[in-house]
Amino acid sequence: MKTSSLAITLALSLAACGQPSDTRAQDGVFADNRVVPGDALSMKASFAPVVREAAPAVVNISARGVQQVRDPFWGIPGQRQTGSVGSGVIVRPDGVVVTNNHVIDGMQEIRVTLNDRREFSARVVLADARSDIAVLQLEGVSESLPTLSIDDREEQQIGDLVLAIGNPFGVGQTVTNGIISALNRTETGISDSGSFIQTDAAINPGNSGGALVDMDGDLIGINTAIFSRSGSSSGVGFAVPATLVKRVVDSAVGGATAVVRPWLGVKGETVSADIARSLGLERPQGLVVTEVYAGGPAARAGLREGDVITAIDGAEVNDQGGLNFRVGTREPNDTVAVAVLRDGRTQTLNAGVQRLPGDADVDKATVIQSGVLSGAQVLALNPALADSLGGDPFATGVIVGRVQRGSYAQRAGVQGGDVLLTVNGRPVTAVSQLADVARGSEVVLERRGRRISGVIR
Q1: What single DSSP character describes residue 150?
Q2: Which residues are catalytic?
Q3: Which member of 63, 100, 292, 392 lies 3.0 to 4.6 Å from 209 by CB, making a disulfide possible if both were Cys?
Q4: Which 8-state DSSP code applies to residue 354?
Q5: What pTM did the predictor assign?
Q6: What are the CA-CA distances from residue 179 to residues 105, 196, 215, 238 (Å)?
Q7: Average pLDDT for residues 186-199, to the nearest whole number?
């Protein structure tokens, strides 16, 4: 983004940094029981009663791990100690703790310190990188621990007071206050299926995994990320909503080792002002369906290309991320009500969402043994595999897993994550098409969203 020819970089701080994109808020679910403080006494009221209820359930987390490294000069392999500091929330009295996945990712030893300074070791029950939520189990719990109730009713309003409780910079439990700045933030660059609560309560490194609490003392979100130029709080923080947190916790407690996200089987484009005018809409709203997966839940429910999806189960949807979030919080085989605008009329279609079709097992990859692509480990794409790799479930082609060092494929410039689309003008749909590809063949591939074509010599 350029402003007066000065380039400004906005950093997204998790534990490391990423690049955010423009954001857009969707309307939230509203309740009518909010009141503005009417006198000076109300304005001076303390948050202490809420903190007394909530703080005992918020914990500090320190984790240590060993990272495999290679000396940059001599190339000698070795190990390096790594560490992480964050926060967490006890959600069950037997010691089930929810935190951010990036707090414990790659760590071998996890220590949890309670508000009363007791310490426990913890093990990972379920880690879901997609939502950045992990569920831990404290070891050696012999009594009921204080908990926070997960409030997944989505009754929050923009402007509601909230508290952020966590362990910023590892200094110890800290409480900050603010308001809900926005609801249903989707295109943040944090996740392709996330819909975040935005708050101006101060959140800093170390707050990750901590609690975002409403004035009832309930957990409404897990603090996850900030936008900042300095790496410290700039008043733009994001929390994973309790709806998704509860989905991950329920999966873990139910014995699952992974969160199974159902899908609707549609792909769409956000309704812009131009699209709204062309469709005769009063305002830009919804998601125009551009593709419907053959035989998928949406197709069976009667959705068509050109339909405008405006809501899922009554919650407004305005982009693909919002749709993915709403569907992803449901269980496979659940039925969702899809509000659709078609030919100027609104109707509701009921769709039974399901697991993504296909096999996501990357261990079933095939290594090409001959030709200019020899040494490339490849798999034919299907919706389940593409989604597990963070790609588009509608993508077709063959994806490269790893490339053997020194192989012909590596010398030709093929990289892990490349999606091979065509060879000599023919669409690639099966692994067998990549055997014995001759020198001089023209290959078209997709790499990190860019389409690249060239001749392999």
Answers
A1: B
A2: 102, 132, 208
A3: 100
A4: B
A5: 0.80
A6: 30, 14, 11, 12
A7: 77
